[in-house]
C-alpha cells in the first residue's frame, strides 16, 4: 500500500482516518515512513487531538486482535507520540502495552494498577445500570437534554454524559436536532455539540426518518435547510450535503407524478382558454364551468416539495432538478414555490448591492470596484437561469417589486455601458422573460414605464425583433391554435385584452373618446400588441376612425406607442402574424387604384407620428427605402403622407395638378408662406402644423443621408415603373399614377429637405454634404439630366445667392462644388451628345436648369390679393365683440402673416430683378450662332424645355416664362416663332403618351403660352409692341412649312390670309395669323383624335389639357363646334367610364359658356344671332308645351273634383270631416286668388329651355296622369316617396317618377313659393288618394 500524503490525510473525516491508519499500520511500509507521516500530521493543531484519538483506537483494535503475539515496536513508537493524551490511553489500552511504551509512572505499583483497571472495566462494560425504567426515561437523557437547553453547552460534557449513561447516539442526535429546530437563536451554540454527535453518513437518513412522523415538520425542514449550509471545521465539508438529503426525498415516483399532473393541468388550462374564446349567442357566460381542477394535494404533501421553499436561497438547490421539472413545479405551485423563488432571488448579496445603485442617494464614487451586478453580463449571469425556470409559470406577477427592480438595474447598466455587453444574451433574456412578463401586470403604468427604460436604450431594429418574438405566430385565437409556442398565461391575457379592447372600441366616438381613451390605455399597459392589432383592423376598414383613434391614444404609455409603430410597420410589410395578411393586395379589384386598407393606414400613420413626434419612425423610412431599392412603389403614399402630415409640408403637394386653380399655380411662384396660403385657400386650421414632428422627421431624414438616398432611389425607380420587367403587364393608368406619385413625392421631399422653417443655412449645409455632385448623379447613379439638375438646383441657387452677397449664406465650403464656373460648364459637355453643343451652349443649359420659377416671376397680384384678404380678416377680428383668447391669437397670427407676405413680395421682386439682369448679361452666349435655326430650337426644346416641363406645374410655368423672357430680351440666335412652332406641335402630339400629371403640366405650359399667342393674334397693339422688330420674329421664305398655302385646322382649312414670301422677312400680322392658325389646327386635330380614341388615357389627358385652356382655347368656332360634336358620345349614358363622362360633361358646359362669353373671337355676329334666335325659339316651344301640360292637368283635376266633391267621409272615419274639408277647400281657394292665374313665363335665354315662373297645380295639388304615361295613380302609401318637404324618404323615387311629376311640378313654381307649393302639392295629393279610395270602398 502507498502511504497517503499529509494533506490527503488531513482532508479525511474521523471514520476515514480509522480505515487509513489501520491500513498504514498493517502495511509493509517502513516504520520511519509511518512515524514521519504521523508526526507531520500531528503538527496540525486543528486536527491534532482528533487524530491522536484515532491512532489510539486503531492501536487498541490491533492489540485486541493480536493479543497472543508480542507488541510491535511500531505500536510502541506510535504510543510514545501520544504521550500528551495519557488519560485517554489509560482507559483504553492494555496496561502491559502502556508499560512497554513507558507511559506508566516509574514509581507506580503495577499489580495494584492492573487490579483497578479490571474493576473499572467490569463496572463499565459488564455491570448493568438501570434508571427509571417505569417512566421510560433515563437519567442520562434527562441530563443530556438539560445540557442542550443550558446556557453553555459543550462537547466534553455531552461526551461524558453519553459515555457515563451509555446513551444511544441516534437518540442523542435526535434530541440535539429537535432543540436546534425549535430554537433558532441558539443554533450557533449547539453547533459544536451537533458536530460531535452527528455522523455525516447517517444524518440524512435520520432526518428523513424524523420527518415521517414529526409534528414539527416546518421547523425541521427549515433546520434541514440550515444544516445544508454548515461546514465541518476540520474538513471544510458540508455537515448535511443537500444532494444526499434530496436523494431521500425525491425519486422516480415523484418524477412520474409531477409529469402526469403537469400534463393534466396544461390540458385543463387549454380547455378553459378554448371556452373563453367562444362567443355565446345566448347572452350567458362565454366560458362554461369546467370540471373539478387537478388534485395537487398529494404532490403538495411530498416532503421534497415542502422543503424546496427553504433551500431556494442557496444556489446549489437549483441543481437538484432539471430545468423542465422546475418549470413544471412552478406552474403547479406558483403561489408557494414561485413566490419563494422570487424572494430567494432578491435575498442574494449581488442583488442587494445592485439594488442600492438604483436608489436616489446612490453615489457611484463611493461604490467599490468589485461590486456585483455592475454590468449587464453580471446581472444576466445571476438572473437568467432562475427566471427562465419561472417564466412559463408566470409567478413573477406575485412579486412586481422584483420585476421593477430588475428593469431599473438593467436600464442603469445599459446607460452606463451601452456597448460593453453581449447583445444576443440580453435580447434572449428580454424576448424570453422580461417582455412577455409585462402581460402579467394589467393596468400598471409604472411597470410599463420601467420596462420602457430598458427598451429605449436598445436600437429600434432590436426592439422590433423583440416585439415580433413577443407576438409570435399570432395573437388571441391564432396563438391558441399554436399554444405550444406561448405560455398559457400569455394567451389568456391576450384573449381577455382582446375582449376588453373590442368592448371599448364599440363605444368610441368623437364625443366619448376622452373617456374611452382611459380604458384603452389600461389594456395597452400590458397587452399593446392585441389592442393595436384590433385598432388597425378597424382603421383599415373604416378610414373615418383615423382622427378619433389618434385622439384616443392620449393616455397610452410610451412603450405602447412604440409597439404601435412596430404594428404599423408590420401591417405595411404584411407580417403582422397569423398568416392573414402576408400577401394582401395593395390595389383594389380594378387593378388601378390603391386599396382601401392601404389608404387608411397611410392616413393613420401620418396623423399618429404628427400627434406623437417622440415615437421612433426610422423603421418606416427604412422599410420604404428597402422597398424602393427592390423596385416597389405601392407604399409611396406612406412617405408622402409622413411628409405632408407629420412634416407639415402639405402645401408642397400639388397632386392632382389638374385641379390647381390659376391662383394656386401662380402662388407656387412665390415664397413658402405664399404657397401655404394659396394652397390652403387661406383656411388656417389650428394644430395643422406641428413643429416638433416636422423637426423630428427632418432630423431622421438627415441622419445617415437617408433623405438624399430616398431622392436618388425615387429618381431611379420612376423609370423602372415604365420600363421595368414584370410577369404580367400593368394597366396604363396604374403606370401613369405610380409615375406621377414618384414625381410628386420627389418634389415634396426635395422641398422639405432644403426649405425648413427654422434655419435654412443648416438645412442647405447638410443637404450639400449629403448630395453627390451632378456628374456622379448622372454617370454613377444613372439619373437623367432633368432629375439630376432638379436635385442640385437648391444648392446652385444657394451658391448663386452667396456670390451675390446675400445674407444668411455662411456655408461656403459645402457649396464650393456647386458654384458656377467654366470648369463646371465644361463637365456638362460629356453628359450629352456632342452635336447638342453645336446648337446650344453650356451657359444656356446651366442658366435654364439652375433657376426656378421663384427667380423669374413675382406674382404680385397674388401677393396683393392675399394681403388684402388678411387685412380684411384683421379688421373683422378687431371689430368683433367679446373677443376670446383664441381670437386674439388668431388676430396676432393674421397680422404677422400679412406683414410677412408684404416683406416676401418686396424681397422676391428685388430678387427677380437681379436674376433677370444676370440672365440678360449672359444672353449673348446662349447660342453658338446668332443666326437662328430649326435644329437649334429643336435641340433646346428636346434637351431643356420638354424634360423639365414634365417635372411639375412650377417647372411647366417656368418653361413658359423663360421662353417669354428670352423673347423679351431679344436673345441672339433665338427664333421665337420657330420655337413655338416646334413646341406646340410636339406638345400637342405628346397627348397620346402622357400621364395625367404630365398632361396637367403640359396644360399649364400651353395655357400660359397660348394666352400670349392669342393676345398677339387679336390685339394689334400688343403685336406691334412685342413682335414687330424683335430678333426672334423673322421667317425664311424658302421654308416649306411656311408656304403660301393656307394651313388647315383639324380636318380642313380655315380662313386665313396667305403668307407673303421673301428671302428673310419680318413677321407681319398676316404671316403671324398663318402661324397661329397652324398651331390652333394642330392642337384641335390632336384633341379630336384623342377624344375619339378608344384608349382611356388619350381621352383623359386630352380633357385635362383642354379644361385648363378653356379661357384661351379654342378661339376659332370651327374647332369649337367639332369639339362639341366629339364630346356628345362621351356624355351619353352608354359611356361606361364614369370619370370620362363627368369630365366630358364639365368641359362641354365650360366650352358653351366660353363660347357665350366671347372666347371664340373669330365667330361672326350672324352666327351668334342665329344661335340666340334658335335658343329663344326652343325656349318658347318648351314653355308652350309646359302651359299645355298645365291646362291638361287643370282639366283633369277639375274632373276629379266633380266626381268626388260631394263625399264627406264614411261614418266613423275621423280622418276627414266636412268642416275640415270645407276649410281646406276655402283655404286653397284663397291661395289661388292671392296668387292669381299662372302667368306665362318669359324666356330666360338659357339653352336648355328651363325657366322660372308658372303657378301651382290645381286646387287638389295633384298632377294629371297622361294617357301615354302608362302608370297607375299613386296611392296614399306612396306619398312618402315624393315627400319634398325635407323629410327622409323611405326609398328614392325612380327616374321616371322624377321626370314625369316632380320635375314638371318644380318648373311651374315661383322662386319664392317653392317650399309652400311643394307642401300643398303633397298634402293635396294625399287627400285626393284618400277620397278615391273611399269612393271605391263605397
From TrEMBL:
Domain (THO complex subunitTHOC2 C-terminal) ranges: 837-1151
UniProt biased composition (Basic and acidic residues): 1184-1234, 1315-1325
Main subcellular location: nucleus
Keyword terms of this UniProt record: Coiled coil, Nucleus
Coiled-coil stretches: 860-894
Superkingdom in the source lineage: Eukaryota
GO cellular component: THO complex part of transcription export complex
InterPro entries, A to Z: Tho2 (IPR040007), THO_THOC2_C (IPR021418), THO_THOC2_N (IPR021726), THOC2_N (IPR032302)
GO BP, one annotated term: mRNA export from nucleus
Biased composition (Basic residues): 1326-1338
Protein localization: Nucleus
Gene Ontology molecular function: mRNA binding
Residue stretches making up the THO complex subunitTHOC2 N-terminal domain: 520-601
Keyword match Coiled coil: yes
Region (Disordered): 1172-1338
Pfam families: Tho2, Thoc2, THOC2_N
Domain THO complex subunit 2 N-terminal positions: 20-181, 383-518
Family: Belongs to the THOC2 family.
Protein name as annotated: THO complex subunit 2
